Amino acid sequence: MQKSSWQYYFLLSGLFFFFFFTWSSSFSLISIWLGQTLGLSGMNTGIIFSAISIVALCLQPLYGFIQDKLGLRKNLLWVIGFLLLISGPFYIFIYAPILKFNIILGAAVGGLYIGATFFAGIGALESYIERVSRIAGFEYGRARMWGSLGWAAATFFAGFLFNIDPNINFVLASISAVAFLIILCFIRVAKIDAMGQLEYGKTSQLKISDALGLLKQSQFWALVIFVVGVSMYNVYDQQFSVYFSHQFATQQEGNRMYGFLNSLQVFLEAGGMALAPFLVNRIGAKNSLLLSGSIMTLRIIGSGLVAGPVLISAMKLLHAVELPILLIAIFKFISTRFEHRLSATLYLVGFQFVSQVCASFLAPLAGYGYDRIGFAETYLLMGCITGVFMLIAAFLLKGDKHIKSVIRGQMNESIAR
């Protein structure tokens, strides 16, 4: 990479690291915090996650369109950075008291903040950095790896600190956000117009009609079908920490061991982020998506079949294989099937938005299932649903050879004009 590319790589990797460090510090043990500290049931926790998903799904299309309109300008990232900064005070002084007063009101307030900051914010950040990575000449996965390391670094200590005082994690979240904002200051935008020309090859302003035009494309709906299936991993992860902690003699031991497990998973995930681009480039976007979905199906069903902390941990660690392939393949699929100007909209609508729609519907049902029939049985049902959608997606998604022939035809038509 050239010197300028290295500068972008280090700065954007830093943004990933501290965004995920803040997110992990404030959210990785939220199910345990809601259950053990605030005394909420699985059903109530599901309602809270549903509220987060509903807010996220409302904001993700908006974030995507705004970021596409902004191009490489940082306005939206500044807003997200401020929201990260207030995470500690929000959880300690606003969220917890409101939840103790009224679950529905607390779910609404928490859903608005958490959904806007993390679940919608991550899509805007990822699409921004993926766009810059294509222009600056480095693999997106190499930068995204630092996000996984940030999550792992925070989670490694989260269980231990939670047993001392849960508020320590929330304070660390705000401290991490300060570093995020400092790094954001150093990302210069002087050459954005030139970089935009390099990416788009045209200067036309993005319109709402351009975004709505995606609804007419069959591959957009094929992607939606696929994402409906893989969205189950969000629901699976929401209360897994509760299930895992119950495998130990005491809650304190379970909390501590879950922190270590989650940290190990994300460290492995970081390595996967560095390696996944080689696999995706070799087998293609469609096959990579289906591979990640198959691993996800195995992980969820396996979690319902095995018993004991060791085997359950092994199922959880499959996430470190599945997620890097999924994220790299999603961006590869988008960049090779759709217009580049709409990359943020596609990612936040086609992937993040659809995931949150499903999560908002399924989270309360999953919580009800955990309370009524148990975690293992609920996981089996979730895994079967994921498997069915993977089979459907296998027939609907177009392979890379077909897409290349379509692109060549479009290029020839454009030249003729």
TrEMBL record:
PROSITE patterns: LACY_2, MFS. This is OHS family lactose permease-like MFS transporter. Pfam families: LacY_symp. GO terms for cellular component: plasma membrane. Belongs to the major facilitator superfamily. Oligosaccharide:H(+) symporter (OHS) (TC 2.A.1.5) family. InterPro entries: LacY/RafB_perm_fam (IPR000576), LacY/RafB_perm_fam_CS (IPR018457), MFS_dom (IPR020846), MFS_trans_sf (IPR036259). Residues 7-401 form the Major facilitator superfamily (MFS) profile domain. The keyword Zinc does not apply. Its main location: membrane. It comes from Orbus hercynius. It is a multi-pass membrane protein. GO terms for molecular function: lactose binding; lactose:proton symporter activity. SUPFAM superfamilies: MFS general substrate transporter. The keyword Hydrolase does not apply. The chain crosses the membrane at residues 9-34, 46-64, 76-98, 104-125, 146-164, 170-190, 211-236, 256-280, 289-311, 317-334, 346-366, 378-397. It is found in: Cell inner membrane. Gene3D superfamilies: MFS general substrate transporter like domains. Keywords: Cell inner membrane, Cell membrane, Membrane, Sugar transport, Transmembrane, Transmembrane helix, Transport.
